[in-house]
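Is this the right way to post structure tokens for a design question? Let me know if I should format differently. Anyway, here goes:
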């Protein structure tokens, strides 16, 4: 019914005079009632047509309004600003966020938690800080020790001296130099004597060959060949004794003495650090006693005590090692010198039995050529 009335109201032509007087308009009670009902219930624009021209226009002037949406407010027939372009429907995620804004905001503002990468960065930062502290302490210590060393060289700084210990250390260094010279000469003797033995061996082979090819001189070449072979055998025995002597001297010089001298170097470094921190403490003690100086003085006192304990400990270690080294040196050299004397004397005296007895006395076993590799029959 409302559609029919609206259509009737929309297609009626209302004459208007030039001065806007509507008094000559015939009254229609049914039309007035229909208009009042339309204004109360609202029009239905889904099936309404709008006439663009006047009454009696053609069908081309009629625009179907089925696609026009209902106005947002009652009484508004046409939207003031129609949308441009195709409407976009919201996605499912957007719709869920619009339906539950509190949950969306709560999920976006979640509480942060520590990740493994952050933990790794903390560890790396801690290691870097620790290394920086080590380098800083090393730099300060090096500066103070260099300053103390320069002061001692120019005679401006005091130096802690243990006369008895310093004398023993200097004697050890002198002894090591002399033993190194003996070791070098003993090695040269071994090399030369090895060449002599090889020459005697070749000469004995040559004499033996000539004894076979010269019947008239067979006897003479024969006993010369036997003599050279005997000398070669005794020379190899003497080489075993000399090699044992060289090995023992090398162990004494390059291991035992060197180990003691390494401890001596540590002791000298500790002594330099002790004097450097002692000088630093003395300079702070002579300065003014304000709050900052007292704090630095306490730190210097603690560092000085630490280096003092280290210095005294290493000094005791050096004294003990020097004592044991002297005892070990006497014992080793007594045995090695007796071996060297007996072997050389027996060799040049031609006493093969005494030479072999000397090696047995000192438990020296000769390494015969090919003794390390067993024969194919033994395998």
């Amino acid at each position: 019914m409302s559609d029919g009335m609206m259509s009737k109201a929309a297609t009626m032509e209302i004459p208007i005079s030039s001065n806007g007087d509507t008094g000559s308009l015939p009254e229609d009670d049914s039309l007035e009632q229909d208009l009042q009902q339309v204004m109360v219930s609202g029009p239905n624009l889904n099936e309404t047509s709008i006439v663009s021209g006047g009454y009696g226009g053609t069908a081309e002037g009629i625009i179907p309004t089925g696609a026009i949406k209902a106005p947002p407010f009652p009484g508004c027939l046409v939207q003031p600003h129609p949308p441009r372009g195709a409407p976009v429907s919201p996605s499912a995620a957007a719709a869920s966020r619009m339906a539950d804004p509190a949950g969306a905001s709560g999920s976006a503002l979640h509480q942060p938690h520590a990740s493994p990468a952050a933990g790794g960065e903390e560890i790396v930062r801690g290691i870097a800080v620790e290394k920086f502290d080590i380098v800083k302490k090393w730099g300060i210590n090096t500066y103070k020790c260099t300053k103390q060393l320069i002061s001692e060289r120019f005679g401006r700084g005091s130096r802690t001296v243990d006369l008895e210990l310093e004398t023993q250390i200097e004697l050890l260094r002198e002894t090591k130099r002399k033993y190194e010279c003996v070791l070098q000469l003993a090695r040269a003797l071994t090399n030369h004597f090895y060449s002599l033995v090889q020459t005697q061996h070749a000469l004995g082979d040559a004499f033996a060959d000539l004894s076979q090819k010269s019947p008239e001189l067979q006897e003479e070449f024969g006993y010369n060949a036997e003599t050279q072979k005997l000398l070669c055998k005794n020379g190899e025995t003497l080489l075993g004794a000399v090699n044992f002597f060289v090995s023992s001297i090398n162990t004494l010089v390059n291991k035992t003495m060197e180990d003691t001298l390494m401890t001596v170097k540590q002791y000298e470094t500790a002594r330099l650090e002790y004097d450097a921190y002692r000088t630093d403490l003395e300079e702070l003690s002579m300065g003014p006693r304000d709050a900052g100086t007292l704090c630095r003085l306490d730190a210097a006192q603690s560092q000085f005590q630490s280096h003092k304990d280290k210095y005294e400990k290493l000094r005791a270690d050096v004294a003990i090692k020097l004592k044991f080294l002297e005892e070990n040196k006497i014992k080793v050299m007594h045995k090695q010198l007796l071996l060297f004397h007996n072997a050389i004397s027996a060799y040049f005296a031609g006493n093969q039995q005494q030479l072999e007895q000397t090696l047995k006395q000192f438990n020296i076993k000769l390494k015969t050529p090919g003794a390390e590799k067993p024969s194919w029959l033994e395998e």
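Format looks fine. Someone answered above. Worth noting: The radius of gyration is 59 Å. The chain has a mean pLDDT of 75.
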